[in-house]
What we know:
The chain is built from ten helices and twelve strands. The protein is of the alpha+beta class. Among the domains are: about 90-235, Up-down Bundle (Glutathione S-transferase Yfyf (Class Pi), Chain A, domain 2), CATH 1.20.1050; about 260-333, Glutaredoxin, CATH 3.40.30.
Amino acid sequence: MDGPNNGIVLYHYSFSPYARRVIWYLALRGIDYAECKQAPVLPRPDLKALGINYRRIPLLAIGRDVYCDSRLILRKLEELFPDGALGASNPEEKAIQKFLEIWAVESGVFNRASQLIPSSMPLLNDPKFVKDREDLTSRPWSKEGIDANRPEALAAIRSGFQFLESTLLADGRDWVLKTDRPTLADIEAIWTFDWLNGLKGALPRDLISAKQYPKVFAWIERFNGVLQKAKAQAPKPTSLKGDVAAQRIFNASFAEKDLGIDQADPLGLRQGALVEIYPIDSGSRHHDTGHLIGLSQDEAVLHIGSEEKGIRVHYPRTGFRIKTLTVGGESKL
């Protein structure tokens, strides 16, 4: 890609489990990129400066295209940087990789994992953090509520460890797809369990440890060993202030050119329709508005801002809603 650091700017904060997926991927690929560190809670003026209301982390810009949601980000990095991609190569492996993505993100495995955050965590004494997470998840974050949810969440996560131990890793393979290095399938499967393993107090070690799940914990240790070596060899990310990151994006070229509207899409939307897009699972109170310039089975794209200096913001279809807006009582369709 054109521009410094491959034209990539990653917006994230250090302990975001979703952002770690992207950081791992970039490190394992050795892809040079820039980063713009964000606060773990709102407001995030660096993103407001781009015209984006979407509140979840991470976001990744490649040129003047900005990608929301780690699922879409990983897919785009595979497509736009194909040399040395980590994705599966045949239909059966692609199915495993996709099912692992769905299992972790969409079926609720990570949602259950997040309910194992210890109620003794210092951040939970910060009213600003608690209020922010209640806005994000639309559920209470009181210590009493966390403790009440813990047994069910623990049962679900224990089942997840057992699934990995008794199926994908049961034959002693090093990596999910029997490869000689970690692939995207490993990232999709491991990120939730690695995050919990590193979160002090999240897992009761009498129930979930290397004693009960030796193959899973050996896999986690093996993955982190490869990751640390990859990080040591990869280019160190360039750190950008918000205003510098914004100017770099606004002054760049678009990374993708061939955008269009799927005429068979059930929504029946047209090129240039004024719409709003927002996630429906978390962060659903934060809507982006713009003109629809791309719509496929997997992705929706808005042009946000002026024609000359605007950006294109990309969203996955799964877990997101698109609503037509009206101006002066008339739809812009």
